[in-house]
Specification:
The chain is built from three helices and eight strands, in the order βαββαββββαβ. By secondary structure, it is an alpha+beta fold. It has a domain of 113 residues: Ribosomal protein L16/L10 (Aldehyde Oxidoreductase, domain 3, Alpha-Beta Complex), CATH 3.90.1170. A five-stranded antiparallel β-sheet has the order 1-4-7-2-8. α2 runs antiparallel to α3. The protein is elongated and about 60 Å long.
Length: 179
């Protein structure tokens, strides 16, 4: 069985479940799912720090939401591939939030005879299945810095293409940074 739909978790008000400790007896979370996001920043960091990328596009959420780390990774792979094709290393791309919240699922059996083989809602705390980032309204999701206004328009097109991979409505903010 695969992952549940993002709608099962995306818009729920949730208390963050993050207590991890190296000492097992002090940790609330006993089993932590592994991190799926490989890199948080891609592109040319040296030129970005030197101020050679004055045009910055930032994608922000327009509602409070939970975003799973596999959605971040899917967006990261797509955006990085497109930017390498179109901008050829003349960009700096960064994913801003880190997935701290650990999501749980109470797996239920369905079908004939399932009522006699499981506990149902009794002790239904659930097992850990994934990590997610809990974001407030207008929280930044990812940002792209580029060198030219022409590159800004192509970066905006790529960011619009990944909106379907995220479980929330987003908007793209444009900023010109003076160094």
């Amino acid at each position: 069985m695969g992952l549940r739909k993002a709608a099962a978790y995306s818009h729920k008000h949730v208390v963050p479940y993050t207590r991890i400790s190296k000492q097992k007896n002090k940790a609330y979370v006993k089993a932590v799912p592994p991190a799926k996001i490989v890199k948080f920043s891609m592109g040319n960091l040296k030129n970005y720090e030197a101020g050679k990328y004055p045009y910055v596009l930032t994608m922000v959420t327009t509602e409070p939401v939970q975003i799973r780390q596999n959605a971040f990774e899917a967006c990261r792979q797509f955006v990085n591939k497109k930017f390498d094709e179109e901008l050829a290393g003349q960009y700096y791309f960064r994913i801003i939030p880190f997935a701290h919240h650990i999501q749980r699922e109470n797996k239920m059996l369905t079908g004939a005879g399932a009522d006699r083989t499981q506990k149902g809602m009794q002790l239904s705390f659930g097992r850990t299945i994934a990590k997610a980032a809990i974001l407030r309204k207008n929280a930044p999701i990812m940002s792209v810095a580029v060198a030219t206004p022409r590159a800004t328009s192509s970066a905006r097109k790529v960011l619009k293409q990944i909106k379907s991979k995220l479980p929330c409505t987003t908007k793209i903010l444009y900023e010109e940074v003076k160094h």
